[in-house]
Specification:
It contains 13 helices and 11 strands. It is globular, with a radius of gyration of 19 Å. Strands 1-11-10-9-8-7-5-2 form an 8-stranded parallel beta sheet. The chain is of the alpha/beta class and 336 residues long. The relative contact order is 0.15.
C-alpha cells in the first residue's frame, strides 16, 4: 500500500497586497536590506503574509505545509545572502530564467546563522510538527550559487556549506519532512570526483534531522553517475521533474531504481496553465505504468519547481489541485 502526500517545493509568491506594500517599504529601506536588517515594518508584513499562506495551505488540505520562504528574495541563495559573514555583490541571473539574485561571496568561515530556524519557529505557532515541512537549498546548489573566497577549492567549499547547513538544521523545531532543493545537480552537474562528494555532502546534511528527507533536483534530469551517487546518500526520497524532462527522468527510475519513497514533480511551477486533479493523477499513473513491478511507500505529489514565478491566484489554484489529486489517489498504487 502506498500513501500519497500532497506537498510543495516552497518559495511561494507573495500575496498581492504584501507584494505592493513590501515593494514600497523596501524602496525606502535599501540600506537596511543590504545590511540584512529588514526593519520592524517589513518584518510585520512578512509575519502577516506568512500566517496567510500557512492558513491557506491548511484550508486547501495539503498534507505537508511549508513556511513559504516569502522573505527569500534571493531564492535558494537566501541562507547565505542574509548571513552576517557573507558579502553580497552584483545581481546575477538565477539559473536560466528571468529571475535574479544577489550573489553571495563567502570570505570567511561560515558560522551558525539561525535565520531559517527562526522562520520555522514562527511557522510552528500555526502548524503541528506532524504537518511541517522544512525547505532548504541542497549543499551542492547553495555552493554553486555562491562565490568562495575563503576555503580555496570546490571540494572544501562544498564540505563547508554542508557543515553549515547541517548546523542550521540542528536548530530547527520538530518537523515531519525536509526537502533539499538541488537544481544545480541537474543544470550544472558536478565533475568527476565532485559528484561523489556532492552525494556525501547531501548525506551529511540529511543526517542532521530525524525527519524524512527528500532531495529534489529540477529543470532537467540527473546524469547517471550523479544519480547513482545521490542514491548512495541516506535519504528517503528523490524528486523527479516530470514537467521539464519526462523521458530522461523516467529512464533513471527504470534503469537504476529509486529510494523507498519518491517525489513526482507533476504540476508546472512556472506556467499559469491550471492542472486538474484527475490530470495530475493520470501523470502519476503514466510514470508507474512504465516502471518494473514495485511499490513506493510514499509518493509525494508536488510542483516541479519553486512556485514564486506564479501569480498568487494561480498559485493557490495549483496547490488546491495538488491536495485534491492526493485525495483522489487514495492509498493504493498499481504498477505494471
Amino acid at each position: 500500500m502506498t500513501e500519497y502526500v500532497s506537498t510543495t517545493t516552497g518559495l511561494y509568491p507573495l500575496p498581492d497586497w504584501a507584494k505592493d506594500e513590501l515593494s514600497d517599504l523596501k524602496g525606502h529601506q535599501k540600506h537596511d536590506l543590504i545590511d540584512g536588517d529588514e526593519g520592524p515594518e517589513i518584518r510585520e508584513r512578512y509575519r502577516t503574509a506568512r500566517t496567510e499562506v500557512l492558513d491557506f495551505q491548511r484550508d486547501a488540505g495539503l498534507d505537508r505545509i511549508v513556511e513559504g520562504q516569502l522573505r527569500w528574495d534571493d531564492m535558494l541563495a537566501h541562507p547565505l545572502t542574509v548571513h552576517e559573514d557573507v558579502e553580497t555583490r552584483g545581481i546575477v541571473r538565477y539559473y536560466d530564467n528571468n529571475n535574479f539574485y544577489r550573489e553571495p561571496v563567502v570570505g570567511e568561515e561560515l558560522s551558525f546563522s539561525g535565520d531559517v530556524a527562526a522562520e520555522l519557529d514562527a511557522a510552528r505557532e500555526h502548524v503541528p510538527a506532524a504537518d511541517l515541512q522544512a525547505v532548504l537549498p541542497g549543499p551542492y546548489s547553495l555552493a554553486d550559487l555562491a562565490i568562495d573566497e575563503h576555503y580555496g577549492d570546490d571540494a572544501a567549499f562544498l564540505d563547508a556549506v554542508a557543515d553549515y547547513l547541517a548546523a542550521e538544521i540542528e536548530a530547527f523545531p520538530a518537523h515531519e519532512t525536509l526537502i533539499l532543493c538541488e537544481p544545480s545537480l541537474a543544470t550544472s552537474p558536478p565533475v568527476d570526483g565532485l559528484d561523489e562528494r556532492a552525494g556525501e555532502a547531501i548525506d551529511r546534511v540529511a543526517g542532521a534531522t530525524e525527519a524524512d528527507v527528500v532531495v529534489h533536483p529540477y529543470w532537467d534530469a540527473l546524469e547517471e553517475k550523479v544519480y547513482a551517487h545521490l542514491l548512495d546518500a541516506d535519504i528517503d526520497a528523490v524528486g523527479f521533474d516530470f514537467v521539464t524532462n519526462r523521458e530522461d527522468n523516467l529512464y533513471n527510475l527504470q534503469e537504476y531504481g529509486g529510494t523507498d519513497d519518491v517525489l513526482l514533480g507533476l504540476v508546472d511551477g512556472q506556467n499559469t496553465l491550471l492542472e486538474e486533479p484527475g490530470a495530475i493523477r493520470d501523470r502519476a499513473d503514466w510514470v508507474f505504468e512504465r516502471l518494473p513491478v514495485s511499490e513506493f511507500e510514499t509518493v509525494y505529489l508536488a510542483p516541479n519547481t519553486e512556485t514564486f514565478y506564479l501569480p498568487y491566484g494561480k498559485f493557490e489554484a495549483k496547490l488546491e489541485a495538488l491536495a485534491d489529486a492526493a485525495a483522489l489517489a487514495g492509498t493504493e498504487v498499481t504498477t505494471a
